[in-house]
Specification:
The structure holds two protein chains of two kinds. Chain A is an alpha/beta fold. Chain A has helices spanning 133-138, 157-169, 189-201, 225-239, 251-264, 278-286, 315-323, 332-336, 353-356, 366-390, 397-414, 424-435, 448-454; strands at residues 4-6, 10-12, 15-18, 28-34, 38-48, 51-56, 68-76, 78-81, 89-91, 107-110, 127-128, 141-142, 149-151, 178-187, 208-214, 243-249, 298-306, 326-329, 349-350. Chain A is built from 13 helices and 19 strands. In chain A, a hairpin with a 2-residue loop joins strand 5 (38-48) and strand 6 (51-56). In chain A, helix 10 (366-390) crosses helix 11 (397-414), helix 10 crosses helix 12 and helix 11 (397-414) runs antiparallel to helix 12 (424-435). The longest helix of chain A is centred in the last third of the chain and has 25 residues, at 366-390. Chain B is 35% helix and 22% strand. Chain B has 17 helices and 26 strands. In chain B, strand 3 and strand 4 (36-43) form a beta hairpin. Classes of the chains: A alpha/beta, B alpha+beta. Strand 5 (38-48) of chain A pairs antiparallel with strand 1 (4-11) of chain B, so a sheet runs across the interface.
């Protein structure tokens, strides 16, 4: 292990090549010393006989073909873990940056993780109350789920995520141990600061682990940040029995970093220049959410991504949507109407909600009510389209009711204050209030018995 | 002596072995000290290219690669049904037992339990002539399935020795035969078959029997035959997996092979849980008794994802050879195509459309052509039907995987985003979907369901098409100005959409609907249309007809009439007659 190799044979962007290397293994971590004092770490991404291609996490600035010493570590990327990581702040590769010294590791873990055996998973069924009507009623978050927020630049995804974290973690069952793992990939200083402040204000900061790779930190480093964070989350959840909420922001920067490295490796690009393995790579992150049979803990993920140009068909949101169990989509036009949270409910979806709501979980009418709201709101879109052609006055009385319903849904149901915490009963009752605007015979998604019990026609 | 070589280079799941090796194309190899499973996919005089079915981190140049001499193949014997495997037929429960909740690398497990004793009944006697495919033993594999062990396809001869009926493991010799050259061969319950080669059959039958799914929009509007092929394309959230689950639960195949190819882990867990609990309406046994799951979730190695589709179809063909009707759910073939793309990229092959390799189309066609209604080598009949989900990028059907799939399947069940947004499930768009089997299956429907079935189906579809045209007008000028007969078409189309096409997978009597009820529902709706039309012809206004609420009553038939109360349909007929008479009486 002691051998150091002097010099490099090639430097290209974040990648370096080293020839004459012996005993290197694929995916191994190497330590680089530049000019005798600057330490960097890198990862072997390709090996050909005695030539290794190494990806340098801290960037290749200052490196020349002669001034670098390379040392093999003999193991893949590992991170030190112990329960002490709670309340600490680390950089993108898991080194402490809060000036409180190193972690005394209880274990060191390979950040790549291993796939969870599907027959050892437990199907997630417990819903998490977030206190946000649009989420609780229509895209219910389930413990162990991965539910991303698809947003755009300038939309309040950070506030929404912060509100979910605050209200979910301090919910009814706060006796259970919870913690938040926060991973920032290429986010602005202000955003990281906003989250830090929010955690502090809500009194949660001693339960938060932060891994920060900020916008001006090395690009390649953020390829490893989510893996480090998820390794910590898995450790806390499956070995320490805690319920972990992981916030990953911003997945777009992660994918951009991948494209950057891929193109300097000279790989064949697939869609929009992203490498062909973008799907596999995203999947290895997102699939690290879940519950393991026989463990009391869970990992719930809320990745945030900004859709480039608000385009949901862009490869990053598109591939994400195929892996995650639903998505919460934010919409610019709603935000411009000052609706907060501006959740566009039609494309939003929670795949796991069907098994975590209803009798015994939330309330028996939940599923039917949600279906009806979706279906009626979809019709509002058609009516608005028609109104823009023939004018609102020409609409049939029934269509006018739909317009009223649509506006009410946006203003009273979707909209709520950034600190307003609604109970599930309040949320569902609000839903029925909305439906009372519509004539009963238009409610075709609700079982007759439930309709009899909950529906009261608005006479006014 | 097996061939060995030394690793020269590593790039993700692709490993190069230097030198001129005697490996064979498609040979299974063991890579490195952990003995990771791999397959030879390219050979030149300088190097052999190997794709590795497990995570390659930690491999080093100079590590040894050992050939096994055989192509990558699956083990075929009792124990396949009710099991859950990864992409290369390794049992996940056994892996969990050895390595815990997380799948570690290089786990060495046998595909099937070699210790378990099966209750074997021998069906041949000394002196019998046997050929490839001849059934030599029967084993009750689950409550629903009798496993029929066969002579491997390439072997024939005369039986010289059999063991008495009793309990045997899958590797125990049970029948000994002597072939025409006098060579003795010992047969066990086990045989091996390379996954990339279709198992031979005697001949192919026309597709004239439907695969009944209990889903109205499929059985009635866009049916698939036994041995047919179908694609379900749709963007995320449109219900591909849901539709696949429904088909796996309710279709009248004998055996279901469910391939989770690059999909979510929780979904596989859900299938596993659900199928243990749910009861097959035909046999009364748990659904898992007729199901095999192949789970290669999206975070499992990409090369095994590519293989999982082939593993699945080989298992299906094996059960078909016993005379069973097998249906494969492949969710999703796009992930498989992307695995091809990923590997192709690593091999630095010249990309064709959207980075997919140029051989995408030929691979797809080779896969779908393995479906069919066959006469087997042992003269039994069996079928393999393939239902493949397609996940087009951005929900855009013009992308290469959807387009190429469309060329090789005969059923196209297009899922639609706007239907899914309105929570109209199954979100199969009736205008862009099609089935080429309708005319092939028409004689069967006429004979077994009802003479008017095809006629009713066509009328339904034509009303839905008219609705679409009328909606174009409504979008411009609103629905109030339409003449009453067109308003009626819109209303009846609404009844069809909500009351017939839409189906609630969570409702106990709506999740599966027998053919007879489907026909009666169609008849009732069309009878309502006919009667309403008579009223309109007598210039009764549509608003008057609508005020009777009869249309909403017909819509809820799907919930109000349970599957075993079909006589209630007569009441509905009376109801419609009353509605007609009432209006005639009070307004004439």
């Amino acid at each position: 292990m002691g051998i150091e190799y002097l010099g490099l044979s090639e430097i290209n962007g974040p990648l370096i090549a080293l020839e004459g290397i012996r005993g290197a293994s694929f995916d191994e971590i190497v330590e680089l010393t530049v000019e005798g004092n600057k330490k960097k770490i890198g990862r072997i991404v390709e090996l050909y006989e005695n030539k290794a291609i190494i990806q340098v996490f801290q960037g290749t600035e200052d490196m020349s073909l002669f001034n670098t010493h390379t040392k093999l570590t003999g193991h893949p990327m590992e991170v030190s873990l112990s329960p002490e990581i709670l309340g600490r702040v680390f950089n993108g590769v898991g080194q402490p940056i809060d000036g409180l010294g190193n972690i005394i590791p209880e274990v060191r873990k390979d950040v790549n993780g291993l796939p969870l055996n599907p027959c050892k998973r437990e199907y997630p069924r417990n819903y998490i109350k977030t206190g946000i009507s649009a989420v609780d009623c229509l895209t219910t978050l389930i413990r162990g789920q991965k539910l991303p927020i698809f947003s755009g630049n300038g939309l309040p995804h950070d506030q929404l995520a912060a509100q979910i974290v605050k209200q979910a973690s301090l919910g009814e069952d706060s006796t259970e141990e919870f913690a938040i793992v926060f991973a920032a990939m290429g986010v602005k200083h202000d955003v990281a600061e906003f989250f830090r402040r929010t955690f502090e204000e809500s009194g949660a900061s001693s339960h938060v682990v932060m891994y920060l790779n900020l916008a001006n930190d090395p690009v390649v480093e953020r390829l490893i940040t989510p893996k480090v964070a998820l390794t910590a989350a898995e450790y806390l959840a499956f070995e320490k029995g805690m319920h972990i909420l992981v916030i990953l922001t911003d997945m777009t920067s992660f994918a951009e970093a991948m494209r950057e490295v891929s193109s300097s490796k000279g790989e064949i690009p697939s869609r929009k220049g992203y490498p062909g393995y973008l799907y596999s790579e995203l999947a290895t992150l997102y699939e690290r959410a879940g519950i393991v049979q026989g463990c009391s803990g869970s990992v719930t993920q809320i990745p945030i991504l900004t859709m480039p140009n608000d385009d949901i068909t862009h490869p990053i949101p598109d591939l994400t949507g195929y892996i995650t169990e639903g998505q919460i989509v934010l919409e610019r036009s709603l935000y411009q109407k000052s609706v907060y949270p501006p959740i566009s409910i039609l494309p939003s979806l929670s795949r796991l909600m069907k098994d975590g709501i209803g009798k015994g979980y939330t309330r028996e009418d939940h599923q039917d009510l949600a279906n009806q709201l979706f279906s009626s709101y979809a019709h509002v879109g058609d009516v608005r389209g028609l109104a823009s052609v023939i004018g609102e006055d020409e609409l049939s009385p029934q269509d006018k009711q739909y317009l009223k319903f649509g506006a009410a849904l946006e203003q009273t149901f979707l909209s709520q204050g950034p600190t307003e915490d609604r109970t599930i009963t309040q949320t569902l009752d609000k839903g029925w209030e909305l439906l009372s605007i519509l004539p009963r015979e238009e409610l075709d998604r609700i079982d007759t018995k439930i309709l009899d019990k909950y529906f009261t026609q608005n006479q006014g | 002596m097996n061939v060995t070589g030394k690793i020269f280079g590593i790039n993700g799941p692709i490993v190069f072995v230097g030198g001129n090796q005697a490996f064979k194309m498609g040979e299974m190899v063991l890579v490195g000290k952990d003995k990771l499973v791999g397959e030879v996919i390219g050979l030149t005089s300088e190097r052999a290219t190997i794709q590795v079915y497990e995570e390659t981190s930690g491999l080093r140049p100079e590590d040894e690669v050992t050939g096994t001499g055989a192509a990558i193949s699956v083990t075929l014997a009792p124990g396949i049904i009710s099991n859950i495997f990864d992409g290369i037929e390794r049992p996940l429960k056994e892996i969990a037992r050895q390595s815990g909740a997380f799948i570690s690398r290089g786990v060495s497990v046998a595909s099937l339990d070699t210790q378990k004793l099966w209750d074997v009944h021998i069906t041949v006697a000394p002196g019998d002539k046997v050929y490839g495919g001849t059934i030599i033993a029967e084993v009750p594999e689950t409550r629903a399935i009798v496993h029929k062990s066969m002579v491997p396809p390439e072997i024939s001869g005369t039986v010289t020795k059999v063991v008495p009926d009793g309990a045997y493991t899958i590797d125990a010799p049970i029948v000994t035969i002597v072939d025409s050259k006098g060579v003795e061969k010992v047969l066990t319950l086990t045989q091996k078959w390379p996954i990339r080669i279709p198992r031979p059959t005697a001949k192919r039958y026309p597709s004239d029997r439907p695969l009944i799914t209990g889903q109205r929009i499929l059985d009635t509007l866009f049916p698939i035959s036994k041995g047919g092929t179908a694609a379900i394309p749709g963007g995320f959230g449109t219900g591909k997996t849901m539709t696949q689950h429904q088909l796996a639960k309710w279709s009248d195949a004998d055996i279901i092979i469910y391939i989770g190819c690059g999909e979510r882990g929780n979904e596989m867990t859900e299938v596993l849980e659900d199928f243990t609990k749910l009861v097959d309406p035909r046999s009364g046994n748990p659904l898992l008794d007729r199901t095999t799951l192949i789970a290669n979730t999206s975070n499992m190695p990409v090369a095994a994802r590519e293989a999982s589709i082939y593993t699945g179809i080989t298992l299906a063909e094996y059960y078909r050879d016993m005379g069973y009707h097998v249906a494969i759910m492949a969710d999703s073939t796009s992930r498989w195509a992307e695995a091809l793309r990923e590997l192709s990229g690593r091999l630095e092959e010249m990309p064709a459309e959207e980075g997919f390799p140029a051989y995408l189309a030929s691979r797809l066609s080779a896969f779908y052509e393995r479906a069919g209604f066959m006469q087997n080598l042992n003269f039994t009949e069996g079928s393999v039907s393939i239902i493949g989900a397609v996940s087009p990028q951005g929900g855009d059907f013009s992308e290469p995987v959807t387009q190429n799939t469309k060329r090789f399947v005969r059923c196209f069940w297009a899922l639609d985003k706007s239907l899914a947004y309105a929570r109209h499930f199954p979100a199969i768009q009736w205008l862009s979907s099609y089935s080429e089997y309708v005319s092939d299956l028409a004689p069967w429907y006429t004979k077994h369901v009802g003479e008017d079935f095809v006629e009713c189906r066509n009328q339904l579809l034509s009303i839905l098409t008219q609705e679409n045209q009328l909606n174009e007008i409504v979008k411009l000028i609103g629905s109030d100005v339409l003449p009453d007969d067109q308003k009626l078409v819109l209303e009846i189309a609404r009844v069809i959409r909500l009351g017939f096409v839409q189906q609630n997978a969570y409702h106990p009597s709506d999740t599966y609907v027998p053919m007879e009820k489907q026909l009666k529902m169609m008849r009732t709706i069309l009878y309502l249309y006919q009667k309403s039309k008579l009223l309109i012809d007598r210039s009764m206004p549509m608003s008057l007809l609508k005020s009777s609420r009869i249309y909403d009553k017909i819509i809820t038939i799907k919930y109000d009439v349970a599957n075993d109360e079909l006589n209630k349909f007569d009441d509905y007929k009376k109801l419609i007659d009353e509605f007609y008479d009432n209006i005639m009486k009070t307004n004439a």
